[in-house]
Amino acid sequence: MVRTTSLVLGLLLAGTQCASAQVLDGRLKQIAATKSIAIAHRTDAPPFSFVDAGKEPAGFTIDLCRRIVASIERQLGITGLKVKYVPVTTQTRFDAITKGQADLECGASTITLSRMKAVDFSSVIFMNTTGLLARSAAGVQSLPDLAGKRVAAVRGTSNERALSSQLARRQIKATVVQVGSSDEAIAALDAGSVDAFASDTVLLVGLTPRSKDPKALALLGDLLSYEPYGIALPRGDASLRLAVNTALSQTFSSDAIDEIFSRWFSAFGKPTALTEAVYILGSFPE
User: Fold this and answer.
1) Taking phi first (over 0 means left), then psi (-120 to 50 degrees means alpha), and beta for anything else, what does residue 148 get?
2) Model confidence over 127-141: pLDDT tens digits?
3) Distance, CA of 283 to CA of 286 (rounded, Å)
4) CATH number of this structure's domain 129-225, picked from the four choices 3.40.228.10, 3.30.460.10, 3.40.50.300, 3.40.190.10
5) How far apart are CA 238 and CA 128, in angstroms?
């Protein structure tokens, strides 16, 4: 990453303070008292959050959250913080936070204004896009080819909204098929009941190997939207949000982010300029 640029921007942003969390209230007080922290995680969002062969949570966001846990231990001056992993779906991920079942949601969640009515978010951790995965046999090579086709999208996601918006804007008459999960969408592609699947581009790449015939699927070049990812947090809990952003800032301004990014995205090459900017702007001065 570009550390020199990060330092310059840090000086320009000197008005922004990111000191270690010291106020023990809200979830931080509970975490300190119980010496435990609950992390909600997706099981179906590789390479961000999934369950590996050993049945353990793994992925880019999981690695970031493990660093957050270590940083919170230092900020609170405690050791041996016990981590409880809470599996969630696209439909239950934010409920886990609002209902107090988890303190952080470490998956592949896009920051949106509507979602901010229920939960808060950390600094941006990744910049993704909404893309399209299509059956080669359907003859779909670009967005206009979806006319008369059936396109899957996970119900209630920002991808579903982006797809519907683009179809309406470009007056493409396609049928949007709501599904409950990414795995359901891949199964529908395999069965030929849908012709394409709209989801986060990097997720589509990670999900393609789950198809019965990955070679029968093709990732299109169309980008339907930009998707800034964040870690979902309890709404109004400023102390926890500060503690999390402190941990992310420490990670983004060190070599750790290079190691984590390379571990999960080496096949994609170097981070894009937009992703570089995410980590530069997320490296706040103390």
Assistant:
1) left
2) 999 999 999 999 999
3) 9
4) 3.40.190.10
5) 26
